[in-house]
Design brief:
Rossmann fold, about 150 residues, globular, five-stranded parallel beta sheet, alpha/beta
């Protein structure tokens, strides 16, 4: 894990290996120095965020990119747990999912998601989306201080 305070930690919660790779590639083209940590299911995501078990030395992320359709514990449950936890609720969460379902969008905002973005299947559009997320959330927005870094 990086120790440089200027390095931002992006926590990607995504089970699709192809999407993980594309998001990693898109972030390589951005200006912000960042490290990506990946969880492939909702249970692993919450263990990491709560620093449970093998994740006891996990670094608090600056930004969470969360898919909704996850195995073991879906993204809606993960979002609800993050926003209900006083230690985690200040971490910005961007839902990045294929769902364009109005119910998913409304439910996510009811659960206090910071932003909801539907993934594009168009490669150049997906790169543009990821670079936009990085530019806004890691360069423009003022984030809460990272605890324990």
């Amino acid at each position: 894990m990086p120790t440089d305070a200027s390095c931002k930690i992006i926590f990607l919660v995504e089970d699709n290996r192809g999407d993980i790779r594309l998001i990693q590639e898109a972030l390589k083209t951005t200006a912000t120095l960042c490290e990506m940590v990946i969880a492939r299911d909702g249970m692993e995501a919450m263990a990491y965020l709560r620093q449970d078990g093998e994740h006891q030395n996990a670094v608090r992320p600056d930004l969470i990119l969360l898919d909704l359709n996850l195995p073991k514990k879906d993204g809606r449950e993960v979002l609800a747990e993050i926003k209900a936890d006083p230690q985690l609720r200040h971490i910005p969460v961007v839902v990045l999912t294929t769902s364009r379902n109005e119910e998913d969008i409304l439910k996510s905002y009811d659960l206090h998601v910071n932003c909801y973005i539907s993934k594009s299947r168009n490669l150049s559009q997906l790169f543009k989306i990821v670079r936009g997320i990085e530019k806004f959330w890691l360069e423009t927005a003022t984030l809460p201080p990272s605890e324990g870094r």
